[in-house]
C-alpha cells in the first residue's frame, strides 16, 4: 500500500490563498472562494474558504497517478470520527475525488509536545500489522519529522501551498 500523509494548513491552503480570499471577500466575490458551492452553514462556509481549489487538483493528481491512500496528519484531524467526516465532506465539496483512509493519532508529551513525525510513525507501525506499506510520502509545511522520514518528506512552502513541483516529487517517491 502507498500512503500520503496530508497536512492541510500550508499545503491545501497558503498565505497567497488567504490573500486572494481576502481580496474576494473585500470585493464581494465570495462565491469565487467557495467555488460556487451553496452552503448555509457559516462554519462550513468559513472552513471551505480555507481550502485552495488548485491544491485540491494537485492532490487528486497524486492519488490518480499513484493509487495511494490519503491519511490526514493535519491539525484538522480529530479523535472524533464525526469531525474527520466533516473534514472529508469539505474536501469533497472542494473537489477531492477520494476517501480519506485514516488519520494519524494525536500523541501529547508533557514538556514540548510531540513531533508530527512521531504520530506518523505510530500510524505506520500500527497499520503495518495489517497491511504492507510499500511507500509513503509526507506533505507538510512544518519540518518536525523523524530523521528516518526525511527522504519521504516534501517540505511544502506555506506561502504558495502544494505546487506542480511538489506533485512530481510526491509521485516519484510513491512510485519508486
Question: Could you explain how this protein is built, in words?
Answer:
This protein is of the alpha/beta class and 176 residues long. Helix content is 43%, strand content 12%. The chain is built from seven helices and five strands, in the order E-H-H-H-H-E-H-E-H-E-E-H. The chain has helices spanning 15-26, 30-33, 42-48, 53-66, 81-93, 116-128, 164-175, and strands at 2-6, 69-72, 100-103, 135-140, 153-155. The chain has a five-stranded parallel beta sheet, covered by helices on one side. Helix 5 links the parallel strand 2 and strand 3 (100-103). Helix 4 (53-66) packs parallel to helix 7 (164-175).
Major sheet strand order: 3-2-1-4-5
Major β-sheet annotation: 5 strands, parallel
Strand content: 5-15%
Helix content: 40-55%
Q: Can you give the mean pLDDT?
A: 88
Spatial separation of the terminal alpha carbons: 13 Å
Helix and strand sequence? EHHHHEHEHEEH
Poorly predicted runs are none
Tell me, briefly, the overall form: globular
- The number of helical segments is 7
Which secondary-structure class do the elements indicate? alpha/beta
Q: Using DSSP, what is the number of strands? A: 5
Write down the Rg.
16 Å
Fill in the keyword field for this structure.
176 residues; alpha/beta; 7 helices; 5 strands; 12% strand
Sequence-ordered SSE layout with sheet pairings:
Blueprint: E1 2-6, H1 15-26, H2 30-33, H3 42-48, H4 53-66, E2 69-72, H5 81-93, E3 100-103, H6 116-128, E4 135-140, E5 153-155, H7 164-175
Parallel strand pairs: 1-2, 1-4, 2-3, 4-5
